[in-house]
Specification:
The chain has about 425 residues and is of the alpha/beta class. The protein has two domains: about 120 residues, Nuclear Transport Factor 2, Chain: A; about 230 residues, Rossmann fold (3-Layer(aba) Sandwich), CATH 3.40.50. It is built from 16 helices and 15 strands. The strands form three sheets. It has an eight-stranded mixed β-sheet, with helices on both faces. The protein has a five-stranded antiparallel β-sheet with strand order 1-5-4-3-2. The chain has a two-stranded antiparallel ribbon with strand order 9-10.
């Protein structure tokens, strides 16, 4: 499960008497206000519409909690810009004691911010295909997954000289993920796609709606897992069945993290032949978030539940569990600042009970070094469905949340190092699909 801090906001245009400020100037000005704890001053820079939703206390909570994950803020480094259509994004590299984060501010033509994010730095190194990728055994073609009014760019990966190959629909984790599920220099879904194709299995992967239409979706108050995951996955399944090369192929749903949690629901509605769940949470998402806070804060101090930030998050998680309180809660009162309808959609979907009733075979895979979805979840899946012969459970001692190999305690900085999903994972999935 991949975790980002996201604050949609607008930034008030500031002009110098002598010279108009650039978007870079405005970005560094906002960073300076955060450093000086001038949170009220930050809020005065927001558009009036958004300032009603984002207050100085929220800005303070986010900025002052970051050192607990990343170490103390030290300085800023590289500043770069990217232009796209009518917007400009400024990326300010923030150097913390333990790692680096990018402050991304996106400006419109009026120099007002339409998005503010803290996210892991974009790695400019070239993606290295895994050794198990045999490029002479498959080809990729661009597709468009159309789901209602939304059109999502994607890729169809097809093995050569295989008639009616099984087709995997790949579902990324939470957040605005691209078709490869890029996290730093790593691309888990691309690794899976090329690995499966090298073993005779086709796949479809596509940009998530929250990436392709992020600005539009931020304004929606009723967004849930149906809109984020389910609808588009079902559209991808329809696309497979309309493809002359694949219309007789069996469909498998392969999900990672949030995508894995949703995979049983997608498979049921898409009438898929089987389900593969990588790092699927069996417990409620709010419980995992609190557990992650304890894990990460414990890297600095062993306070456990006494840590004030853990207490704040635990209090927010408690709101999610109270149906009456949740209905009236504002996003800032809930984990990850997600809306009440989103949490209601998660509460309504009991993934373990749902999956237990399915006839399709299920393969559950788990990295034992994963701190985002842990072996506790793996054992819960196994306890609930392990008595059904159709289901298979495999865990990997050295692998993390991205199913990459590592040593010691897994931390967010591990995702900054380029790697690939372990070949054994690819082969276990391939062999399991062929077996069924």
């Amino acid at each position: 499960m991949k975790a980002l801090v996201l604050l949609p906001a607008f930034f008030l245009l500031g002009l110098s008497l002598m010279k108009a400020q650039t978007n870079t100037d405005l970005s560094l000005s906002l960073l300076g206000k955060l450093q000086r704890a001038q949170y009220d001053s930050c809020q005065t820079m927001f558009d009036t519409v958004v300032s009603n939703k984002i207050n100085a206390g929220m800005m303070q909570q986010i900025w002052e909690s970051m050192p607990r994950f990343m170490g103390e803020y030290q300085s800023y480094g590289e500043v770069r810009t990217e232009n796209r259509d009518s917007t400009e994004s400024v990326f300010v590299r923030c150097n913390f004691a333990k790692t680096k984060m990018d402050l991304q501010l996106t400006f419109n033509r009026q120099q007002k911010i339409i998005g503010i994010f803290f996210l892991p730095p974009k790695n400019t190194s070239t993606y290295n295909a895994p050794e198990y990728s045999k490029s002479n055994k498959f080809y990729e073609s661009k597709i468009m997954v159309k789901s209602g009014k939304y059109e999502l760019p994607g890729l169809l990966c097809i093995p050569n000289n295989v008639k009616h190959p099984p087709v995997a629909i790949l579902l990324a984790g939470s957040g605005p993920n691209d078709k490869d599920e890029s996290i730093g220099p790593n691309k888990l879904l691309k690794d899976i796609a090329v690995g499966l194709a090298s073993n005779g299995i086709a796949s479809i992967r596509y940009d998530k709606r929250t990436l392709a239409y992020g600005k539009e979706l931020m304004a929606q108050t009723d967004l849930g897992i149906k809109e984020e995951v389910i609808d588009d996955a079902l559209s991808a399944a329809d696309l497979v069945r309309k493809n002359p090369l694949l219309k007789e192929s069996e469909i498998y749903i392969i999900g990672h993290s949030l995508g894995a949690m949703c995979a049983p629901l997608v498979a049921s509605r898409a009438k898929a032949a089987g389900i593969v769940m990588l790092a699927a949470n069996a417990r409620p998402l709010e419980d995992l978030i609190v557990e992650q806070y304890r894990y990460l804060y414990g890297a600095d101090r062993e306070k456990g539940e006494d840590d004030p930030e853990v207490k704040k998050m635990a209090a927010k998680a408690a709101v999610v569990k109270d149906a009456k309180a949740l209905k009236a809660a504002r996003p800032e009162e809930l984990p990850l600042n997600l809306s009440a309808p989103y949490w209601q959609s998660l509460n309504a979907y009991k993934q373990v009970e749902f999956a237990k009733k399915l006839k399709q075979p299920i393969l559950v895979l788990q990295g034992e070094r994963d701190y985002q979805v842990t072996m506790t979840d793996f054992e819960l899946w196994k306890k609930a469905m392990g008595d059904q012969a159709k289901n298979t459970f495999i865990s990997y001692p050295a692998l993390n949340h991205l199913f990459m190999k590592g040593e010691g305690k897994s931390m967010p900085s591990e995702y900054e190092t380029q790697g690939n999903a372990e070949e054994k994972v690819i082969m276990d999935i391939s062999n399991w699909i062929r077996m069924h």
